[in-house]
Automatic annotation (TrEMBL):
Pfam families with a match to the protein in the record: Aminotran_3
Known cofactor(s): pyridoxal 5'-phosphate
GO MF term list: transaminase activity
Stated family: Belongs to the class-III pyridoxal-phosphate-dependent aminotransferase family.
Identification of the protein by name: Aspartate aminotransferase family protein
Lineage, broadest ranks: Bacteria, Pseudomonadati, Pseudomonadota, Betaproteobacteria, Burkholderiales
Domain of life: Bacteria
InterPro entries on file: Aminotrans_3, PyrdxlP-dep_Trfase, PyrdxlP-dep_Trfase_major, PyrdxlP-dep_Trfase_small
Naturally occurring in which organism (per UniProt): Janthinobacterium fluminis
Keywords annotated in UniProt: Aminotransferase, Pyridoxal phosphate, Transferase
Amino acid sequence: MARRHGVDWRRAQALAAEEQAQFVRNNPVSRALAGRAAGHMLFGVPMHWMRDWSTPFALTVREASGGRFSDADGHEYSDFCLGDSGAMFGHAPAPVARAIAHQAGRGYTAMLPSEDAVWVAAELARRFGLAYWQFALSASDANRFVLRWLRAATGRAAILVFNGCYHGTVDDAFVDLVDGAAVQRGSLLGQVHALTAHTRVVEFNDLAALEAALAGGDVACVLAEPVMTNIGMVLPQAGYWRAAQQIMRRHGTLLVIDETHTISSGPGGYARAHGIAPDALVLGKPLGGGLPCAAYGFTAQLARRVERAKAGAPPGHSGIGTTLTANMFTLAALRANLAEVMTDAAYATMSALAARLAEGLRALIARHRLPWCVTQVGARTEFQFAAAAPANGSAAAAMLDPQLGRVIHLYLLNRGILITPFHNMLLVCPDTGTAAVDKLLRVLDDCAAALVAA
């Protein structure tokens, strides 16, 4: 019998065919809409990532609220993807909806500061411990802007990332470690510049490699998530970040922490909760309750260096910022989300739900004797196809099995449960509830039983 990650692979292939046929039968309206979309949208969807699900055609969403959404065929779903973190605190949270409605009659953008921007910057400084803030429309842009500022402030061209990292669409981060050498990712379309000239890459949790990469004194900053997420969650080993920051300080290299995903950890993010003290911090899609927005902060010392770099540059466009950055509409949503949605009470609810989910996942994995593991970071939980949690990006990549993942994802979707594509990440929001968590565990238990059956 052919087995793969503890699964009867022949049964998995048969199950995949059954689930695809069921999806097609159940979703005639989504199928018709996908056919119409193919005539006017590239790849048949508004953004090509929307084809990267387990479904034979895109599922069309009709309405979303809290931890649920409905599709064009009238089916209801418990949503454990939540826009891949964009709706981390639930779809259409009421305080954000009220703020948007209020602002709708008061103007959207003026390329001037609003009162909300002043409040939000002060609140971000309080929560995250960095004194000075700027805004962007996505974490990708925020990361891109931070790299420009820090290269200008330090006079250094190189940056360092971790193998398997994810920082949105920042080209500089699309560099992997292959047989010990930095290699530009083949998936990066249309890039003609040699990214490896200015990007160093090492494995996460490898202090010796970090020391060697920074020893030349030419690296402006390390850009990192405090926990790797998109390749599959990779936790820092005990004492790693304390030692890593000592190495960075010794070589004059700054630390940029990207909390876009790990803001699931708590009101001040993973770094604040675990004593990491970055020079700069990036926050993205969850901040505005689902609206496009991001923010990045600097320590007071770094802010002074950045201001000197700008003052010393010739006049003209800096290449940093866009016309709609910090528009009034987005800042109103951001203020409401920070003040009334991203609260201590909300995080306590989310963490408890995620712990219930993680415990249930471990129990069903043990019950079916599957060689899988489970990792939880606040409201974010993931199961991976290996018995032990990975220590770095290479190990996490080796655990990925897109074909097996697609079978599981489609099985869940056909039973009213959505989880994140690309990997097996599960998010809970304050409105998810124990009933939805328990249903997910029951359905996944049934799926596991079908996959391991002889």
